[in-house]
Request: fold
Amino acid sequence: MYGSLVIGFVISVFPFYWLGIMSSQKSSAAYQFPPVLHPGKQFGINYIHVLQNMPFFGSMANSFYVASITTILVMFFSSLAGYAFSKLEFRGRRYLFGFILLTMMVPSQLSLVPLFIIMTKIGWVGSLNALIVPSIANAFGIVWMRQYAEKAIPTELISSGKIDGCTPFRLYWNIALPLLLPGLAALGIFTFMGSWNDYLWPLIILNNKSQYTIQVALGMLVGVHATDYGMLLNGTFLATIPLIVIFLVFNKLFISSLTSGAFK
Amino acid sequence: MSILQVEQDVAEARKSLRARLSFAPYFFISPFYVVFLAFGLFPMVYSFYLSMVKWDGLGPMNFVGFTNFQLLFTDPQFWQSVSNTFIIWFESTIPLIIIAITIAVLLNSTLVRFKAFWRAAFFLPNVTSLVTVGIVFGILFGTQFGLINYVLSLAGMHAIQWFNYPSTTQLAVAFVIIWRWAGYDSLIFLAGLQSIPESLYEAARVDGASRFRTFLYITLPLLQPVLLFTVVLSTIGGMQIFTEPQIMTNGSGGIGQGGLTIVMYLYNQAFQNHSFGYGAAIAVVLFVIIVVFSALNYLITTRFQSQGADIE
Reply:
């Protein structure tokens, strides 16, 4: 039994180990018989090649910027709307929520071409805004936060807040939001990962090296230097480290939030 | 007089507060609708129109009716991309589910220790970006004397030029999908397994049922909702596969274009060839495929649920 777990472990983790050692190897090490399984001495040289051929730190900064802003906006708007759908009474609530559920069924690829045309018209081609703003309409976030608010916020708390004369926004900000934090953390991780890893849309919309996210920059690097494995894997390795470190530190929160989306 | 005044003030204040309260919910939910209208709904509707025009992005837009669809349905490359996508989806989904259930059963066993460690290790592939995964496996599969061929040679097999044939390109892409999602799916199955009441297993034990029969007649049927969920997930994801084959084959789809998926073809047509109308038509067909799949999934799910209700 442990045997099959160990096999699974090796298959899951080995590519990361290989990525790590290859970042310090010559390109030829990728096709040696028997394979090279130890670190080499080329890390510095590969690293310099990475910096010469791609805007590594600029792209990382762009990715952090896009993913953080997107995450904060999605967390704010989703919790606000989720709270409203769960705890406030208003006319048309069921239909308005049903509409949001319906939008989740439509694949995003359907609107790829027209969205690009819209971005051309409003001058957002090559702008990071084009990655951030459309993602505010996050149906999953609202459904998720509504579900969470349903069990996390006692309705009496809201009604007593109303009697005390709280404004609607203060009810949300001071009473609802603190109770929603655990659910928000999960949504935050979900959103950040999705935004950080997004490739197709940024590839379409970004046309300027200085605006590339790290995924697009890596993708371009493969396109031009497909056989310079040492450099390619060095850049990939460096781009992967931050995410792996964050995962190892918060792995319980990660796993619970990424899988909890499955159960409603 | 003054008391009346106060009462009036209070009544007015209440009224205005109520008015504000009743207006507030719409205000709170409005950002979604505003943004969705501009960047979601409008493009969706617009894409149906675009699918009926011929446009290179610069010159005039010519309305051509259903010509794009006529061209599309007689375009062998399009049909190839559809069949590639389905083959990759099939080759990844079936093994994925079997492997994920196996891992889940192992992790659910009381005999296994350090569960948190195994969970984190199996989950790690899911955290990495698709581009990273594509680059690493593109090299692992792509080099003739690379690591994967070395492992095959240990098993006495010949080296395979993975990206030189459509079928092996598809296998390589499917392998990567399995690699990335097996841990994730297994955790979902694990949660499903843990929701099965222990008393059922005890009853089976008392009746002298073998482990295999217990798994077949108790575990699997009760896992059905979770199973369906993962199938739906991998169906919708599988139809939209883009990044893995794109990076692994450096945009070409491999020799013979076995890795050319529907979304890759859409991307090439719309954003490489600037045939925006044709690209939109591909998007519409993809949309229809996914809607049909979702409807099928929905029908199957509701049928299973009503069957479950009958048993109860």
